[in-house]
Amino acid sequence: MPSSPPAVPAPTPAETPTLAELMRRGDVFSDRCPSREVLQHVTSRWGVLVLVALLEGTHRFSDLRRKVAGVSERMLAQTLQWLEADGLVRRQAFPVVPPHVEYSLTGLGREAGERVQALADWIEGNLADILAARETVQRDKSANRPK
Amino acid sequence: MPSSPPAVPAPTPAETPTLAELMRRGDVFSDRCPSREVLQHVTSRWGVLVLVALLEGTHRFSDLRRKVAGVSERMLAQTLQWLEADGLVRRQAFPVVPPHVEYSLTGLGREAGERVQALADWIEGNLADILAARETVQRDKSANRPK
DNA sequence: ATAAGTACGCACACAAAGGTAAGTACCCAT
DNA sequence: ATGGGTACTTACCTTTGTGTGCGTACTTAT
């Protein structure tokens, strides 16, 4: 149980990448780097689930809606448009009535999807540990201020 | 250029996992599964960046604030509390004045962090392709409705 | 003596995310 | 003929995320 802070090891100098550098290779730690937008689309609430769902193959709009439980039509459409704009999802519309549209991953989308799936899988597999940790952390906090 | 939709391959039967099953192994596709909350914390705008930052080692609050460019004190504190509650981040406060608090990853946090880093790294490395795709997709859309 | 740094909590405000409901223009099953 | 399915869009409203500014209780640097 440490009561005094450790000594500082080494100061990290500040970095200021140019815009051109941010295009060649993004930097999520940089405030105005475009990679942050992409990150937000990919890690958005429904974006993650759509990418994982599409890893299994092409889906129609309403198939996705059923698979991704809880998503509204509005947000599913919105999310798909984000991912399509970023070149991760391909949209194929057939000129028939009633409408028929198929969504699938592009090459980029598949690569991204595999990474988000790795994360989602890990969370699913370790959910029990995480929920257990929640209890523990909560208990420890309460112990530090019993009144 | 397909103009008629392909035939359907096979209908997937509906699944309804019980709450108990959702605890042993989460299912992010299930509406009320707790894994979704965890997913949201981990993939939140600042959660991603904090996890990646902490992979490099222990950081103080203000170190994180400087490293994660653009985050406000309010949201950094909030994000850290989410991750701490989920057992991914450890908080160590020293009873000194001025305040000194150190944040680090737990075992769970490191595993999660590695996965989000893999995603962040991929996005950084493929940013150029994604930005290029944005242009292309935009152009294709405009071409389909020139007026 | 004054300013800056530290790690937050709190109140206020705004914008974005997200849900609900309705409308569209047809087809198909009952 | 009525109801449901399809792939959205739009308008309206609520919730959440997020930023800003202020206060704190001191210490260290200027």
UniProtKB/TrEMBL annotation, chains A, B:
Entry annotated with the keyword Transmembrane helix: no
Q: What is the protein name given in its UniProt record? A: HxlR family transcriptional regulator
| UniProt cross-references to InterPro entries, sorted A to Z | HTH_HxlR, WH-like_DNA-bd_sf, WH_DNA-bd_sf
Supply the alphabetized keyword list: DNA-binding, Transcription, Transcription regulation
Q: Which organism is it from?
A: Azospira oryzae
Q: Residue limits of the HTH hxlR-type domain?
A: 33-131
